[in-house]
Write a structure and sequence with these properties.
The chain has seven helices and 13 strands. It starts with a strand and ends in a 5-residue tail after the last strand. Helix content is 25%, strand content 27%. The chain has a six-stranded mixed sheet. A five-stranded mixed sheet has the order 1-2-13-6-3. The longest helix has 11 residues, at 120-130. It has one domain: CNF1/YfiH-like putative cysteine hydrolases (4-Layer Sandwich), CATH 3.60.140.10. It is an alpha+beta fold. It has helices spanning 23-28, 31-40, 113-118, 120-130, 154-163, 180-190, 212-215, and strands spanning 2-6, 11-16, 45-47, 57-59, 77-80, 85-91, 95-101, 106-111, 136-140, 168-170, 176-178, 195-198, 221-227. It binds zinc ion. Zinc ion binds next to loops.
Length: 232
């Protein structure tokens, strides 16, 4: 697990890649939680969700974070203002999006084309605002890029109708593609989130990643968003 990004308010984004192994096992065996505790030097509980490419957002704290015998919430975004919770999202090609605000409200989102199509990002930003977030910044961790993401059909038409024609890209083999990162940027901009950083890495053609589209990987990466605290 490595530190990928730090927001100005102390919220950090961690990521497990291929050399860490399948993140589903790292989560279920408590390895991620253990590493967060040792990196931050205090108790952290890891919240995850039963993801299903929906637009459902869950507000979580340590009591609702699941744990060994707890039930996982259904949904594709996790929001909290609890500095004792790490928010974990599993991905392989879909974009993991981290969001943070000055007020200490932060979020982790599983954003594939279906979630974007259904409005997972606006739902997450609105939920953050309902908890007191004002100015929100975003970071997009490694995901499949436009040059590798062939995509056609009425879903693409609908996404480009909603978010603008810049979401339509070309693959490196010159067919129509979806620019997932551009659709995330446009979707967030509509909600007033304009400060968006992103990893340049493509999970399909980049070294060291699992890819569902390119290699039918069953393994997943994990993005964890956590508040290191003490800097606000
Ligand atoms: Zn690529």
């Amino acid at each position: 697990m490595r530190l990928l990004y730090q927001f100005e308010n102390g919220v950090e984004v961690y990521f497990t890649a291929k050399d860490d192994g399948d993140a589903k096992a790292l989560v279920s065996e408590g390895i991620v939680e253990g590493e967060l505790i040792s990196r931050l030097g205090r108790q952290i509980c890891l919240a995850t969700a039963r993801q299903f490419h929906s637009e459902i957002v869950n507000i979580v704290d340590c009591n609702s974070a699941g744990g060994a015998d707890g039930e996982l919430p259904d949904g594709d975004a996790l929001v909290t203002r609890d500095a004792d919770v790490g928010l974990g999202i599993l991905v392989a090609d879909c974009a993991p999006v981290a969001l943070a605000s000055r007020e200490g409200v932060f979020a982790a989102v599983h954003a594939g084309w279906k979630g974007i199509y259904k409005g997972i990002l606006p739902q997450t930003v609105r939920t953050m605002r309902s908890l007191g977030a004002t100015e929100i910044s975003a970071y997009v961790a490694p995901s499949i890029k436009s040059e590798c993401y062939e995509f056609v059909g009425q879903e693409l038409d609908k996404i480009s109708e909603d978010l603008g024609s810049t979401v339509v890209g070309r693959t490196s083999w010159d067919t129509v593609s979806l620019d997932l990162l551009e659709s995330i940027k446009q979707s967030l901009k509509i909600e007033g989130v304009s400060r968006i950083d992103a990893s340049d890495d493509c999970t399909a053609c980049g070294e060291g990643y699992f890819s569902y589209r390119a290699r039918r990987s069953a393994e997943r990466h994990l993005m964890v968003v956590v508040d290191r605290g003490g800097r606000r």
